[in-house]
Amino acid sequence: MDNVVARLMRYAKVWSESDYHANRGTTPSTDRQFDMARLLVEELHGMGVDNAFMDDTCYVYASVPATPGCEHLPAIGLIAHMDTTPDMTGKDVKPQILHYEGGDLVLNPEQNIVMKGSDFPELQKFVGQDLVCSDGTTLLGADDKAGIAIILQAVEELLAENAPHGAIKLGFTPDEEIGLGASHFDVKGFGADFAYTLDGGDITDYEYETFNAAKSVVTVHGFSIHPGTSKDRMKNALLIAMEYNALLPALETPAHTEGYEGFFHLQEMHGKVEEAAMEYIIRDHSMERFRQRTAAMDAAAEQINRRYGPGTVTVDTQDQYYNMYEVLKDHMEIVELAEAAMKGAGIAEPTHSPIRGGTDGCMLTYQGLLCPNLPSAGHNAHGRFEFAPVESLKTGVRTVKQLLSPALIEAVILKKEK
């Protein structure tokens, strides 16, 4: 039988990076994601899950039927994404296992790539443990290949042990890192009563709150004329764009916020004197504050237009997703099941944190599939210093097996329904 560490290291070597700039009408955004999908289908078939398949948009689905006597249990879905972020290359990943004894951790002596303990104080939690890392020239891809490895390892062990369980629904998605992971997910065909994404961080922390999110494109219309004869006539769109941004709260940006604090984030700016454009994302856990933030974008445009004339600035804001807690708060028994499973796996005091972003689970929850988020043991996602502790990966496997335990489901879910 395989083990969860070997799975992660094998998956990490598959280049499955998505692409922010691909045609949004094409799914997946990169053909290389099919390589990961095909590998997972092959492995599921090898485990005896013969109904596993990949559809033409690169979603992988599989179903494990309930064992005799467990048909009354709810069908539980387990979901993780196959792509890695475009923020740092996931090509030619060279995973390795390093033993951490404290202080700095050398990932690559030849290139002097060092994970400094002073930069990453959370490393101190793992002194004396083995960590799965890259060689520092790429990310590792534990986001979210650790989630996939945990799910498949847990399912393989349950099948090998002939352990009783209800129906298990498996789903692996492309393009989560570019916000499209749930776009073509077949919720009805998936057939789960509720589900969990495994796409979190520290193995002790689970999540059921996300941001409310919007994207805003601010376009500034200027007037270009020769600088030598421009007095009282030129309207420099680039300078006006800077004035617009200055009207937003300077300290309400990602670099100055944490926890439940929302933000305005200027992601991209480009243009010339004649026209300039800025792309923002707007985030807040509170719907009231979220609406105040989107209104502030319009208010800033109104002020600029009073200065420079109507139509100088236009704002196009589109909602992206909403806080899944607003749906899950009426179904907290599935969150309670997650916490009970974590305790059963040996985590004495599970914690929960607000997600400062979104997940497939957030989107799926609003599509009718309740889907909080479980940890997948990865740390420092989206960069060269990403790592996954071996013991945390093993704990993740135990957590999933506990989550599927008939006794726990009876005690937490079915008892409450009665």
Account of the 3D structure:
This protein has 418 residues and is an alpha/beta fold. It folds into two domains: 4-209 and 324-417, 3-Layer(aba) Sandwich (Aminopeptidase); 217-321, Alpha-Beta Plaits (2-Layer Sandwich), CATH 3.30.70. It has helices at 4-12, 33-46, 142-160, 187-190, 237-246, 287-308, 325-328, 333-344, 360-366, 390-403, 406-417, and strands spanning 53-54, 60-64, 76-81, 96-99, 105-108, 113-115, 130-133, 168-173, 194-198, 205-206, 212-221, 263-271, 275-284, 313-321, 351-352, 373-374, 387-389. The chain has a six-stranded mixed beta sheet, with helices on one face. Helix 1 packs across helix 3 (142-160), helix 3 crosses helix 10 (390-403) and helix 8 packs antiparallel against helix 11. The mean pLDDT is 95.
The beta-strand count equals: 17
Name of the level-1 CATH class of the largest domain: Alpha Beta
CATH topological fold name of the largest domain: Aminopeptidase
Sheet of most strands: 6 strands, mixed
- The number of distinct structural domains comes to 2
Tell me the CATH superfamily of the largest domain: Zn peptidases
| Rg result | 24 Å
Secondary-structure-derived class: alpha/beta
Residue share in β-strands: 15-25%
Return residue spans where pLDDT drops below 50 for at least 5 consecutive residues: none
| Cα shape | globular
SSE arrangement, N to C: HHEEEEEEEHEHEEEHEEHEHHEHEEHH
Average residue-wise pLDDT: 95
CATH architecture level-2 label of the largest domain: 3-Layer(aba) Sandwich
Strand order in space, largest sheet: 1-2-8-3-9-16
| Helix coverage percent | 25-40%
Total helical segments: 11
Gap from first CA to last CA: 39 Å
